[in-house]
Amino acid sequence: MNKEIKRIFIDTVTTYNYTDKDVDDSVIHELYELTKWSATSFNCSPLRLVFLKSKKAKDRIDPYLMDSNKISVKNAPICVIIGMDTKFFVDLPRNFKAVDAKVFFENNDELAYTTALRNSSLQAGYFLKAVNALGLDAGPMSGFDNKGVDNEFFKDTSLRSNFLCTLGYGIEPKGHPRGARYEFAEVANII
To answer: Rounded to whole angstroms, how far apart are CA atoms 33 and 27?
Structure first.
């Protein structure tokens, strides 16, 4: 296996310990440039990212975090709100010109929400691999009050939070020892 592929896909762990080295804004922009090319249905691209770098920004999210996540967010150079636009379909005529796909979603809130969640999660997977490809480490997390975060950061918009992710340059020990993974035959079939 290629050394770089192994580093990006196998050697990474959920990271809790980071250096205090700043993640330059140019790196954040590069992360997005790599992420934006991910595949989504109808090229809907619902992913929205809010990078919390300052103490003031992190203080805003702190009340909505589980206690066990407060220190991780405080100590990481960045906490990213991985969000989604539930009204992504408004831009479908711009992003997907093959057919008028907007009509599938504009009067179906449940389908729009499910599509936004699924596709923002797909894009978030690309984002996490872009993080690793650029030599950064990440700590994706649940364990927060989605409604509180949405009210604090996305009030009166169609944006919603999906999950949070700390981001920076990890130091050892980055996280917990690697847990087990299923073997192919336990989770997959070829039929």
So the answer is: 10
Cβ partners under 8 Å of residue 18, min gap 6: 75, 76, 77, 137, 166, 168, 169, 170, 171
H helices of the chain, where?
A: 3-9, 25-35, 55-61, 67-75, 92-95, 102-105, 109-133, 146-154, 184-187
Largest CA distance in the chain: 53
Rounded Cα distance between 117 and 130, Å, is 20
Look up the pTM and report it: 0.93
**Do the beta carbons of residue 94 and residue 178 sit within 8 Å?**
no
Tell me the three state secondary structure of residue 62: helix
C-alpha dihedral, 139 to 144 to 150 to 153, nearest 10°: -60
Q: Is the dihedral of CA 156, 158, 161, 165 positive or negative?
A: negative
Name the phi and psi angles at 137, rounded to 5: -125, 160
Angle between helices 109-133 and 25-35 (to 10 degrees): 120
What the block records as the tokens of 4 is 């770089």
Using one digit for the tens of pLDDT, what is the confidence trace for 99-140?
A: 899 999 999 999 999 999 999 999 999 999 999 999 999 999
